[in-house]
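STRUCTURE:
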């Protein structure tokens, strides 16, 4: 078990190095000159002399691999450069904004889990029942409706018409309700269908028949055996979507004027704020790697066969 965890942690290193290489390479190959973008954001007329000075200051006149090595050294020190727009360290700006995104992502994940687990489980156990049909309808609706449209619909009915929740901003739990539901509904659709299909598959497995033959209670079989194994695909999806939520809440943050990391990234794209864009890409890659590592460890404890299979392949 310890060797499996160590192997997974060691596999992070080449992935992270590849992410930094791609990020540095995109800047190197981009048609946008970082020095010109900086001067434009600072409202300074770019001349050849000033451009050459800024390129030297940013290290852009050095060979690519020297730029790459310098980037890794700075990243290890959490130095992502200075924002072209605010003229402040990018990491300080990220630390200021990312808690709002984390708060929104965690609440959305909790809503999705608390709704989809019982709904998907009951839909699988009671196939063809009313709750199964309801889960299908909810899943189709959640998977097909665009997030930005759902956000505007929720704002129109619950904020403009009924005046129950704030239209935008952050501060109280009321501000969290509408953006969290907007993010959670597609996840509920995905997790409900995954869990339902997994439950139906596991109900056909021999271990369920053996458990019934041994005289175990149906409730025990369903909760301690079927649900424990069937929830594995959902946990995998949860790990993928956790990284996505922490870095990809761009549309929802824009609709609800949520001062998070995703909205900051959109502003950086419009302003060609390259240090912010680089920081976003690296943080996104790191969060996906970390969330998948956590999911692998959790799945290993839920289903010890995973670590045994890994041992057999070595």
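SEQUENCE:
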């Amino acid at each position: 078990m310890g060797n499996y965890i160590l192997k997974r942690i060691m596999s992070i290193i080449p992935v992270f190095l590849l992410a930094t290489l791609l990020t540095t390479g995109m800047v190197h190959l981009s048609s946008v000159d970082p020095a010109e973008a900086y001067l434009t954001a600072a409202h300074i007329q770019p001349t050849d002399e000033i451009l050459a000075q800024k390129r030297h200051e940013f290290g852009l006149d050095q060979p690519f691999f020297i730029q790459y090595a310098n980037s890794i050294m700075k990243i290890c020190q959490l130095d992502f450069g200075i924002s072209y727009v605010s003229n402040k360290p990018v990491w300080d700006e990220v630390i200021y904004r990312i808690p709002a995104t984390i708060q929104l992502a965690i609440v959305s994940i909790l809503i999705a889990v608390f709704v989809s687990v019982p709904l998907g489980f009951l839909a699988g156990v009671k196939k063809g029942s009313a709750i199964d049909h309801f889960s299908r309808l909810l899943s189709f609706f959640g998977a097909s409706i665009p997030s930005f449209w759902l956000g505007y619909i929720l704002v129109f009915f619950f904020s403009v018409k009924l005046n129950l929740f704030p239209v935008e901003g952050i501060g109280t739990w009321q501000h969290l309700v509408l953006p969290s539901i907007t993010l959670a509904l597609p996840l509920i659709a995905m997790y409900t269908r995954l869990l339902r299909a997994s439950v139906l598959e596991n109900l056909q497995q021999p271990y369920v028949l053996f458990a019934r033959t041994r005289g175990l209670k149906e409730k025990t079989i369903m909760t301690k055996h079927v649900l424990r194994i069937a929830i594995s695909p959902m946990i995998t999806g949860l790990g993928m979507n956790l990284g996505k939520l922490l870095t990809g809440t761009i549309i929802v943050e824009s609709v609800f004027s949520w001062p998070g990391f995703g909205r900051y990234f959109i502003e950086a794209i419009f302003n060609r704020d390259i240090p912010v864009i680089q920081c976003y890409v690296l943080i996104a890659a790191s969060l996906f790697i970390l969330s998948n590592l956590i999911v692998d460890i959790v799945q290993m404890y839920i289903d010890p066969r995973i670590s045994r299979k890994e041992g057999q392949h070595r």
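REMARK: The radius of gyration is 24 Å.
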